[in-house]
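Table S2 (continued). Query chain:
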Amino acid sequence: MIAIYEKMIFIFFAKTDEELSLVCETKNAPSKTINREDGWRAFKIEGQLDFSLIGILAKIAQLLANNGISIFAVSTFNTDYILVKDNNFDSAIKILSENNYEIK
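Corresponding output:
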């Protein structure tokens, strides 16, 4: 099942040797950034996924890619989040629904 996130508190923070990345609602973004891209909307793959499961995120990514929709994926220990650009959101919902993904 895939949940649509309209009103969620979502903050994802990552730090590497080369960068510091923050994924959050535009209204919560720091005013001074080097690079920034607004206009994303999120889906959450519902349920905790066992690490032995293979290809769940890849299948969703491939379905959307085959229809010209790129994704930005964020994974946590418990689940995966898929972000698509706002102008592709309705198309992504339709594509996933047509491929037997339950959208709530």
